[in-house]
Amino acid sequence: MDDSTARRILGVGPHASLRQARKAYMQRAKMVHPDRYAHAEPPAQREAQRAMAELNEAWRTIRLGPPARPRVDHEPAREPDRAEPPRPRGCEICGHIPANRIDIRSLTGLLLIHRSERYAGVLCRGCGTALWRDVQAQTLTLGWWGVLAVFVNLAVLVNNGSYLRTLSGMEWPTDRVAGTEAPLSEPMPATRKVTARVLPWVATVTAAFVVALLVMLLARNAP
Ligand SMILES: [Zn+2]
């Protein structure tokens, strides 16, 4: 794989730093990782594996490739490519339109600290909804378990909720932008609804119970 193909697959420009390329790789890998497709149909699983292998190769190409040639000050200014009309921006995962910017987080509470993971990108309704359900279920399950995390998690859930409204207002993806380099050829298969999963319920009800208990104990011991 050559450098320009690798950069197209990762969605980074010719002058992007290694750090930017790594960030793009991590973002995409997180979203198309085959673990997300454990419950999907076999063709979707194979497609995710293929996409992941391609992303890995693109990142390896950029990471191990020749060092970027030094920037020349008098590089001739390139004529803008007029032949190519601007393409609509398709979903970063599957290349379909319509797509909108989604920026959601998951939280893991670890008693005194917490760890947050961000999933941001331009996504279609199919990929966005599949990802949203996984991320929201994860934060509802793991986000409550810390002193500060309880409060941070509420903010995370509210932020994620606003993007669910964005997703619900979008049309379902129809067409793929021609020539797009998105890792998957079809939108991500649907994941289970958050309300149909057991762990988020158990964790959230338990967390609410613990908080209520603490508040009662504090109230009783107050002078
Ligand atoms: Zn998509």
Describe it.
The chain is of the alpha+beta class. It has 2 domains: about 5-65, Helix Hairpins (Orthogonal Bundle); about 95-220, no CATH class. Helix content is about 50%, strand content about 15%. The chain contains 6 helices and 4 strands. It has helices spanning about 5-10, 20-30, 40-65, 125-140, 150-170, 200-220; strands spanning about 95, 100-110, 115-125, 175. The strands form 2 sheets. The protein has a two-stranded antiparallel ribbon. A two-stranded antiparallel ribbon has the order 2-3. Helix 1 packs across helix 3 (about 40-65) and helix 4 packs antiparallel against helix 5. Zinc ion binds near residues 91 and 123.
What key phrases describe this protein's structure?
single chain, 2 domains, 48% helix, alpha+beta, 4 strands, two-stranded antiparallel sheet, two-stranded antiparallel ribbon, Helix Hairpins, binds zinc ion, 223 residues, 13% strand
Unreliable residue stretches? none
Shape: elongated
Per DSSP E runs of 2 or more residues, the count of β-strands stands at 4
Number of domains: 2
Structural class: alpha+beta
Head-to-tail CA distance between termini? 71 Å
- The main sheet orders its strands as 1-4
Strand-residue proportion: 5-15%
Output the number of helix runs.
6
List the helices and strands in order: HHHEEEHHEH
Helix content: 40-55%
Major sheet details: 2 strands, antiparallel
Q: Identify every distinct bound molecule in the structure, by name, code or SMILES.
A: zinc ion
> Based on the structure, what is the oligomeric state of the protein chains?
single chain
Evaluate the radius of gyration.
21 Å
- Average pLDDT metric: 88
